[in-house]
Amino acid sequence: MAPAPSTYSVITLNVNGEKYTLPVDHRTTLLDALREHLDLTGSKKGCDQGQCGACTVLLDGRRAVSCLQLAVAAEGRAITTIEGVADGERLHPVQQAFLDLDGYQCGYCTPGQICSALGVIEEHAAGWPSAVTADVRPEAGTPSLSAEEIRERMSGNLCRCGAYVSIVQAVAQAAEAHTAQSHTPETHTPETHTTRTGTAEDRSAEAKEATA
Amino acid sequence: MTTTTTGTSTVNGSVGTAHTRVEGRDKVTGAARYAAEIPFDELAHGWLVVSTIARGRIRSLETAPVLEMTGVLTVLHHHNAPRVDSDYVGMLGTPDPTAAVFQHDRVPHMGWPVALVVAETPEQAREAAEALVVRYEEEPHDVAFSGERPDAYAAEGHMPAVTEKGDLDSELAASAVVVDAEYTTPEEHHSPMEPHAATARWDGGRLEVLDSNQGTTWVQGELAKMFSLDPDSVRVRSEHVGGGFGSKGLRAHQVAAVMAATALQRPVRVVLTRRQMFSLTGYRSPTTQRIRLGADADGRLRALEHRSLSLTSTVHEFVEPSAGVARVMYDADAHHTANRLVRLDVPTPTWMRAPGEAPGSFALEAALDELAEKCGIDPIELRARNKPERGPVSGLPFSTHNLLACFQEGARRFGWADRDPRPGLRRNGRWLLGTGTAAASFGAGAMPSTAVVTAEADGTFTVRIAAADIGTGARTALTLVAADALEVTPDRVHVRIGDSDFGPAMIAGGSMGTRSWAWAVTAAAAELRERLTLGTGIPPEGITVRSDTSAAIGALAQKERHSFGAQFAEVAVDVTTGEVRVRRMLGIFAAGRIVNPLTARSQFVGGMTWGISMALHEEAVRDQASGGHYGADLAGYHVAAHADVPHIEADWVDDPDPDDPVGIKGIGEVGIVGAAAAIANAVWHATGVRHRHLPIRPDRVLPAGAAAEGERDA
Amino acid sequence: MREFGYERAVDVSGAVTLLDTDPDARFLGGGTNLVDLMKAGVERPARLVDVRELPLDRIESAPDGGLLIGATVTNSDLAAHPEVRRRYPALAQAVLAGASGQLRNMATVGGNLLQRTRCGYFTDVTAPCNKRLPGSGCPAIEGEHHNHAILGASEHCVATHPSDMAVALAAFDAVVSYETAHGPGELPLADFYLPVGDTPHLETALPSGALITGITLPPAPVATLSRYRKVRERASYAFAIGSIAAALDVRDGVVRDVRLAFGAVSSRPWRATAAEHALRGAPADAESFAAAADAELAAAEPLPHNGYKVTLIRNLVVAVLTELTEEAAR
User: Fold this and answer.
1) Which residues lie in Low complexity bias regions (chain B) (predicted)?
2) Which residue among A166, A189, A195, C193 sits deepest, i.e. has the most Cβ atoms within 10 Å of its Cβ?
3) Is B669 a catalytic residue?
4) Is A93-181 in CATH node 3.40.50.1390?
5) How far is CA C111 from its chain centroid?
6) Do C144 and B623 touch (CB under 8 A)?
7) How far is A199 from chain B (nearest CA, A)?
C-alpha cells in the first residue's frame, strides 16, 4: 500500500507571459485557479464539465477547455487567456470583429468563443481538416474557411443567446484579416519552458516529421 | 464605439442608428465581471445539497462528520436556518416557496435544496456537500404528465383560464374543412451560459447581494420581504448578467447565501452547478395542446378551439398559458380557449422566453398550416383572410396590427411566390427540401419605472436606472434614448444599471424592459433639459432629476398591443437517418421603433435561433422511476450549436407604437414565436409528414419517413 | 470530489510501477473524461499519475505499411496526420466527428479507448447503475433508453460505448499495446472490450494497472477508400445515436474486401463481421448491402424506444457503401 500522497502542490503557472507561483489543491482546475486564485475571471465557468466551451483558453497555443484541465497538470505549459489576447490597448482582430459585428449578447460565452476562434484560425492555417471537410486526404488540400467550416469548428462553444450568426461572420472577417497580414497572437511562451510548446502548426509539423 | 457616424454636431438621431455595445470592449477582453467574479476578503463558498428523492420528508442529516472536515464552516438546514417569510406578495405576485430554503422537512421534488455546506474553498465545500448523509422518508411520487390527467384544472395565471364564445360543436359541424390535432412540446430549460450565482455580505448594517438577475429592485424587494428587512437596508447589484431568459429571479442560491452570510458574518458566495440549475431555476412546462379548427372552403374560420395543458409543482402555481396566443391571432364565430394545469411532484416551472406564445404558436401555427393544406389555400393568404379587426376575445382595437406587412415583405425576400405547395417533391442528394412559414405575436407593454438623470458639471450626463442588461443591449439602447432625449451625442451619456439603489424599475422580462426603462429615462431627461434651459449653470454636484412613469403608464388606454412577425424557414430532411437541418431562416417583424438596429437584429436572430433549438433539439427528460432528470447537463440537454444554425436574416417594417414616447414595443421574445412552427411546417413540405411533437428528432423522423404519393398526412 | 495525490510520470516503467502499488490510483491523460467523472463523483481516485508527457506522442509508419500510434497522441494530431488521412481516412473522419476542437486537442488516443459510457444513469451518482455500482440495477431498461444499445447488451446494462475513434479502429483491426509492472502485452481491439454479461462494470480486458502505450494499425489497402458517417441529435458536438465506419474494395461490380463497424449501438464498437462475410464476393449494389446489414442486425434486440436504431444502421450501411461504390467507380 502506497503512503497517502500529498493532496496539494505549489506550482508555477505561465499565464499570458507572466509567471504565477501558487499553492493548489490538486482538485483545483485550471479554470478555478485562473478565476479564484489569479483573479483572471475572463475565462468563464458555464458548465464545469467540458460541455459548453465558455472556459476555453489556449494551452501551448492550442485551444482547450480549462474546466477539465487540472491546474497542477498545467504547470510548465504556456497558457493564454482572454486577458492576454489584446496587444495592450489594441484589440486583436478577432476581438474587434466580435465587437463590430455584435458577435455576442450576454457576453458570457464570448471569451471562450474568441479563444476558440484563435485556435480555429491557427488550426485551419495548419491545414487541419474538420468533420465537414468533404475529402480529408492530404492530397485534397486545405478546405477554405467557409461559413460551414467555421460553424463546425466552432461548435464546441455554445451560445445560448443565439449569437451564432454574427459570431460566424466575425470569425470569417478576422480569419480573412489573418490571411491577409498573418497577424498571430502572442502565445507568451516563456523562456524557461521544459515541456512541449508551440503552435498548432509546430505540433503538426512535429508529428509529420515522425512519419518520415 | 459606433459603427456609423455620430458626427460632432449631431444632437439627435441616435435612436435608429446602429451602435456597438457600450460595454462591448469589456466583454471581448474579459474585463466584464459577472456575479461570481468579484473578489472579497474572507470570502466563504457555499455548496447546495439537494434531495435525491422526489417526494417525502427529511428524516435526518448527519452533519457532525461534515463539520469535522477540513475547511468546513457551517452546514445550514431546516433545523438551524433562519426562519423566513414566504407569505407575501412581491412585485410579480406571491413567491415560489422553492426559494425559501431550509424551512421545513418536506421534499416536494427531486433536487430540492436540503442543506448548504459552507467552507473556505469551493473544493472543500463541494467535497463536504457530497459527503453529507441525508436520510429520507420516501413517499410515492407522481411525475407522469399526459393529456389524460383527470385531476387537471383550469388555471388563470396572469390571464383568464377559459374564454368561450359561440357554439363550437355546431360551427365545427357546419365547417367545410376541419383540423383536429394534438400537439406536444417537451420540458425545456433556459440554460443561460452563466450559472446562477450570488455573493451576500453585510456591510455597515446593510445587506449587499452581488447577483446575476433580471431585476435588482425586484430581487431586493423579495429578499427584504423574505428576511423582514427594511428595503433600504438591502442592496442588490447585478452589473453583467450572462443570460436569463426568465430564469433569473429570486432563487435558492441568493436566499441560502444571505442566510450563510448572516450566520457567519462574512461574505458567502453560492454558485449553482449546471446540474442543480435543472431543478432549481425554473423551466418551461411541457404542454399538450389540442387544436380544433373549422373553416369554410375559402379558409375563413368558423370555429377555433385551443386547449393547453401544462404542469406545475405541488408548492406553487405557475401556468404556461399556451392557449393565450389564439386570443390574439385569429377570430372565429365559435372561439374557445383554455389553459389547464396539473400539479405533480416536480419543480415549479417559470417564465421562459415567450411564455405561452412559444409553445402555443407552435401548435396554432402548425394547425393553420394543416388547414391551409386542406383548403388548398396558400398559408399566407389563409392568415390574411383571418386577420382579426379587433381582439378576438377582448373586442378591443389593436394599437397597430402590421402582421400582413411582415408577410408581404417576408414573402418577397424569401421567394415565397415561387413555392410549389405540394409536399415531398424537392430533393438534393440525400436531402428532401421544404419551406414553411408561420405568424408570430407577442404582447407589447410597459411597467412603471423610475430613472435618475444627472447633468454633470463636466458637460456629460449620468443616467441611473435599475435596469438589467441580460444580453439584450439595454445599456446601449438606453444610452441612445437618453442621448436623443437630452439632444446630445451618445458619448456624453453614461448609463449605469443593475443596482437596486437606483430605485424601482421594471425587470428585464416580458419584452417590456427597454420600453419601460426608456420611458422613465425620456421623462427624466425631458425635465432635466427644461431645468438646464433656465441657464443657471451646473453646480459641482450636478443637477439631478428623478422620474416616475407610474401615472403615465396607468393612464394608457386599454388596447390590444402586440408585436407581430412572419417567420420563414427552409429545411433539409434525410428521412433515412432522421436528420433535419435548417438551411435558412428569415423573420420580418413589426415590433415598434427599433432603437439600435445592430443589437435589435441580434435579439430577433437570437430568438429565431431558439426556435431552431426548440424545433429540433431541446427536451429535458424526466425519469419516471426516480422523478428526476435524465442527463441534466449540456451534453444531455441539447441546445443548438454553431453547426445547427444557418444564416438567419431578421428585419423589420416600420411600426412605431403610437402611445410610447419613443415608439418602442419590445423585441426580446417575438423572435422565437412561430419559429418552431415554421420549421415544422417546412419539414412537412419536405417530407409530406406532419410532426406534431417536438423536438423533431431523428428517433421521430426516421420511423415516420416520408409519405408516399397519395397517402400524405394521416 | 475527494482529495488526491498527483504525480507526473517521466517514463513508462515508472508510471506502471506507481499504479501497480496503489489500487486507488488512475492514469491521467487529457483528463477530458476522467476529470469530468471525478467531478460527478463517479470516479474517486486517491492518486493521479499524469502520463500526458510520456514520450508516447509519435505516429510512425511501420515497415509493413501500417501505422504505430502512440497512446498520448492527441485526437487532434491523429486526425491531422497526413498518413492517417491518406491511408485510413475513416479514422481521421471518426476522430473529427467526436467532441469539439478543444476536447480533441486535450484528449489522448489511449484515453479515448478507455472513456466511459455517457449513459445518464451512469453519470448520475444518485441513480442505480450496475456499471457504476454492481447489483444496483439498470434503470435504463424501463426508463430512458432512446440512445442505448441494440446489440450485445444484457439485462444488466444497455449502455453504449461513446467513442467514434474506436469504431474506425475496430473496422481496421487495430491492436492495443500496453505495459504493466510485470511486462508488456497486446490486445486486438476485437478482444479489448469485454462482453457485458452480468459484469458491466468490467469494461476491458486490460490487466489491472496496465498503461496503454500505443495502437498498431495493420496495413489495410481497403482502408484508403473508407468513410465514417455519424448521426447525432445536433449537427455537431454531440455523441452519436448511430455511426458507421466502412471501407470498400470493389472490382468489376463485386465486393472484394469490406470493413464495417457500428458505433452507438453496443457497449463496444461493433465490428459487423456477419455483414462483412455476407458482402465478400457479393455484387456491390444496394440489395446486397441491405441484405448484409440485415444479416448483422438479425442479432439486434431493441428496447421499446430505440428500435429506430436498427433502421438507422441499416440505412447507413446502404447509404455509405453505395457512396463508396460510386466513389470507387470514379
Assistant:
1) 1-17
2) A166
3) yes
4) no
5) 10
6) yes
7) 22
- Mutation target to probe the B interface, by most B beta carbons within 10 A, among C32, C124, C141, C229 is C124
Helix (H) and strand (E) counts in chain B? 17, 27
Q: Determine phi and psi for B31, rounding to 5 degrees.
A: -80, -25
CATH of C223-329, one of 3.30.390.50, 3.40.50.1820, 3.20.20.70, 3.90.1150.10: 3.30.390.50
DSSP state of C224: G
* Cβ atoms A72, A30 nearer than 8 A: no
Rounded CA separation B693/B688 (Å)? 15
Cis peptide before B695, with omega less than 30 degrees from 0? yes
The pTM (predicted TM-score) of the whole model is: 0.96
Are A101 and A85 contacting, i.e. CB atoms less than 8 angstroms apart?
no
CATH of C5-50, one of 3.90.320.10, 3.40.50.1820, 2.70.70.10, 3.30.43.10: 3.30.43.10
Chain B neighbours (≥3 Cβ pairs under 8 A) are A, C
Angle at B411 between CA B409 and CA B413, to 5 degrees: 70
Task: Say how many CA atoms lie within 13 Å of B468 toward its Cβ.
Answer: 36
* Residues in Cβ contact with C19 at an 8 Å cutoff, skipping those fewer than 6 apart: C25, C26, C27, C49, C181, C209, C211
Q: For residues B661-666, give the mean pLDDT.
A: 96
Q: What is d(CA B208, CA B224) in angstroms, rounded to the nearest whole number?
A: 11
Which residue from B247, B256, B258 is spatially nearest to B212, judged by alpha carbons? Answer: B247
Greatest alpha-carbon span in chain B: 82
Cell 480549462 maps to which residue?
A66
Rounded Cα gap, residues B383 and B565, in angstroms: 12
Q: What is the DSSP letter of B83?
A: P
Query: Are residues B510 and B247 in contact, defined by beta-carbon separation less than 8 angstroms?
Result: no
The CA distance from B75 to B46, in Å, is 9
Look at A51 and B24 and tell me if their CB atoms are within 8 Å.
Answer: no
CB atoms B644 and C235 under 8 Å: yes
Check if CATH label 3.30.1360.70 holds for domain B24-32+447-554. no
Residues 165-204 in B contacting A (C-alpha not used; CB under 8 Å): 190-195
Interface of B with A in 345-374 (CB under 8 A): none
Q: Do the Cβ atoms of B628 and C126 come within 8 Å?
A: yes
Domain parsing of chain C, residue ranges = 5-50, 223-329
Render pLDDT for B318-377 as a digit per residue (tens, 0 to 9). 999 999 999 999 999 999 999 999 999 999 999 999 999 999 999 999 999 999 999 999
Provide mean pLDDT across the span C156-184.
Answer: 98
Do the chains contact at B645 and A152, CB–CB below 8 Å?
Answer: no
* Contacts with A63 from chain C: Cβ below 8 Å: 101-102, 105
For the stretch C213-243, pLDDT in tens is 999 999 999 999 999 999 999 999 999 999 9
CATH superfamily of A8-84: Beta-grasp domain (3.10.20.30)
Kindly compute the dihedral angle of the four CA atoms of residues C179, C182, C188, C190, in this order, to the nearest 10 degrees. -110
Per-residue pLDDT band for A178 (boundaries 50, 70, 90) equals confident
CB B307 within 8 A of CB B152: no
Task: Give C212's strand partners.
Answer: C178
First to last CA, chain C: 56
The residues in A 53-72 lying below 8 A from B, measured between CB atoms, are: 54
Q: What are phi and psi of B307, to 5 degrees?
A: -115, 130
In contact, C263 and C230? CB cutoff 8 Å: yes
CA of A73 vs chain B CAs: smallest distance (Å): 17
Q: What CA–CA distance (Å, rounded) separates C204 from C195?
A: 9
Q: Which of B247, B71, A33 is nearest to C3 (CA)?
A: B71
Between strands B206-211 and B197-203, the pairing is: antiparallel
> Measured on CA atoms in the order B200, B203, B206, B212, is the torsion positive or negative?
negative
Domain boundaries, chain A: 8-84, 93-181
